[in-house]
Specification:
By secondary structure, this protein is of the alpha/beta class. 26% of the residues lie in helices and 28% in strands. The chain is built from ten helices and 16 strands. Strands 4, 5, 6, 7, 8, 15 and 16 form a seven-stranded mixed sheet that branches. Strands 11-10-9-12-13-14 form a six-stranded parallel sheet, with helices on both faces. Strand 2 (16-23) and strand 3 (30-36) form a beta hairpin. Helix 3 (137-150) crosses helix 4. The chain is globular and about 55 Å long. It starts with a strand and ends in a 5-residue tail after the last strand.
Length: 351
């Protein structure tokens, strides 16, 4: 099976766009070709994509390890930002041509155009560029979902965020602060820890140089973290349980450190009355995603504003930008774990 992603080529008057096709493998296997421009169906809005952003799921999909959900586009790209082109029948909100929007996707973001259910659209805050906005939907909605829909974080709780300088990590640190809780992080370099601390992390621990479980327990005077956001999985399980507070919630949303677990995980988790909660966003229903977008838009999006008007301003963290013709380099950059924040892919060159 081939995986597809799109690249703008030629006049925008043409009904064809170009796309990246790849056979499962390394970044170098991604290629380009033309496909018809999508048309908005009932309840959909057609977006001219200016930028998308890279996610770990893209690299996994490229390798054949994380296929698109049934019925969804096999084009890679889980988010996009751009402008409205047209609306399909049945659209309820008054979206008009040229409106600046960003959106969560199940696929199709590496594209010149994408048709999106209107429930997933968010207006871009006026003080953000469309390229900054591209760094928001997937990472920030994932972090918001994990904290509020899954872990149900409470004011004053300690939240341990693994990969604290990643896209989701940098979003989570800021959202934890917004919720009145206390974020602490792990990362693999002093530079990444410093970045997380500038965003509001109360403490950071280099997992390559120290036992983060010991450090978390020291920081919390032995009480442990009330919530752990974990994209690592197998290699972290013992230390996660060791620093989980009694009645704590361990939220697993990735397995970058492996899926296999050996040892007394159930007994140790049971002894702390701990909860292991697992969550993915891409495979959720449209209704769930619509509810998530609505909650995020009401509770978090207003804080992406002019810093003079918001006492707790949120900001997307962008590591680097690549043109879509450089998407292979973007994938290599992420897979080398060099990024701090989001990797943005420009689909339409800035004017």
């Amino acid at each position: 099976m081939e995986l597809l992603s799109l690249f703008c080529q030629g006049s925008l008057r043409h009904v064809t766009t170009s796309e990246t096709i790849r056979k499962q493998g390394g970044p170098e296997s991604m290629l380009l070709r033309n496909v018809p421009r999508p048309q908005p169906e009932h309840g959909e809005v057609l977006i001219r994509v200016h930028a998308t952003a890279l996610n770990r799921a893209d690299t996994l999909q490229r390798k054949g390890l994380y296929p698109a959900p049934p019925g969804e586009s096999e084009v890679m790209g889980l988010e996009a930002a751009g402008t409205v082109v047209s609306v399909g029948p049945g659209v309820r909100k008054c979206w008009g041509p040229g409106d600046r929007v960003m959106t969560l996707l199940s696929g199709g973001g590496y594209a010149e155009y994408v048709a999106v259910p209107e429930e997933l659209l968010m207006s871009i805050p006026p003080h953000l560029t469309v390229y900054q906005a591209a760094a928001i939907p997937e990472a920030w909605l994932t972090a918001f979902q994990l904290l509020h829909f899954v872990a149900q974080v409470k004011e004053g709780e300690i939240v341990l965020v693994h990969a604290g300088a990643s896209g989701v990590g940098t979003a989570a640190v800021q959202l934890v602060r917004l919720a009145g809780a206390i974020p602490i992080v792990t990362a693999g370099s002093s530079e990444k820890l410093q970045m997380a601390e500038t965003l509001g992390a109360a403490a950071g621990f280099n997992y390559k140089q120290e036992d983060f479980a010991e450090k978390v327990n020291d920081f919390t005077a032995g009480r442990g973290a009330n919530v752990i956001l974990d994209c690592i999985g197998g290699s972290n399980w013992e230390r996660n349980v060791a620093c989980l507070a009694t009645d704590g919630r361990w939220v697993l949303y990735g397995c970058m450190g492996g899926k296999a677990v050996a040892g007394d995980i159930l007994g140790k988790l049971l002894s702390k009355r701990g909860q292991l909660l697992c969550s993915l966003l891409r495979s959720r229903s449209l209704q769930y995603k619509a509810d998530l977008v609505r909650a995020f838009s009401e509770r978090a999006l207003p804080h992406f504003s002019d810093p003079t008007s918001s006492p707790c301003r949120l900001r997307p963290v962008i590591d680097s930008t690549f043109g879509l013709e450089q998407v292979a380099d973007a994938h290599r950059h992420m897979e080398a774990n060099r990024n701090m924040g989001k990797i943005v892919i420009n689909v339409m060159n800035p004017q």
